Amino acid sequence: xxxxxxxxxxxxxxxxxxxxxxxxxxxxxxxxxxxxxxxxxxxxxxxxxxxxxxxxxxxxxxxxxxxxxxxxxxxxxxxxxxxxxxxxxxxxxxxxxxxxxxxxxxxxxxxxxxxxxxxxxxxxxxxxxxxxxxxxxxxxxxxxxxxxxxxxxxxxxxxxxxxxxxxxxxxxxxxxxxxxxxxxxxxxxxxxxxxxxxxxxxxxxxxxxxxxxxxxxxxxxxxxxxxxxxxxxxxxxxxxxxxxxxxxxxxxxxxxxxxxxxxxxxxxxxxxxxxxxxxxxxxxxxxxxxxxxxxxxxxxxxxxxxxxxxxxxxx
Length: 315
What we know:
Layout: E1 7-14, H1 17-29, E2 35-37, E3 51-52, E4 62-63, H2 64-77, E5 81-83, E6 87-91, E7 97-101, E8 105-114, E9 118-120, H3 126-130, E10 136-137, H4 140-143, E11 151-155, H5 159-169, E12 174-178, H6 188-195, E13 200-203, E14 206-212, E15 219-224, E16 230-233, E17 237-240, E18 244-246, E19 277-279, H7 291-312
């Protein structure tokens, strides 16, 4: 049963990760008394990433979970009220905005910063889950460096897969691209780049049967869907590029979004089409999806929220 008098919050941050924690750092330093609900995966996708070597300021790299813990401590240090809980529904037509957490706790908020991120789509193999972070990755740009001079495989057939295969080919000795059908979904120019690259071998009409390796990836067994034959490839890195799904479902009835569900923000801002509601990080970024860009957009969201409240005369 919902609480009769909802707690009122000046600045509510939904979701954690680099975007949410950075928004919290800026909002708390600005005196907005932010409250953060961390969501289903506190710390976001970086909590399933081992080494982060491309975030500025860490010359020796840092473990993803450790980095998220540092950001969390920094946000808490400035006074962010960090709570466990998942936003399960919202009403952005009401004033102030209404948010329900864990299906029964009702809150109201003057400003809402959405930092719920996006979840990588996976193949659903037990071996994929078991070796995630030990050779299995959903981000070639993040992790490709670790496979310099090695053989890898990537699964997918769209522009992202083609782009990441090309990126990996600049680093790796050999890239096997596993494509389920006899054609790609990628744009013609991206297909041409893949097919013209001598380091990329496209395996048409092929699916992943099993990722091999005890403690780290050392191979993949693939299956031809036309004749059922299987073969094993010796690889050290396995990349999944079959898309991401933004965690935006509960917001979609109110906020403008693209056909994939990514929330739309006013260019150059974190503003959505609803006053006082801002979006940052991967939930609104289908292009870059990097920790550093997520953090930057979290900063933007907090500054936009501060200015919005100042204009209302509440800050």
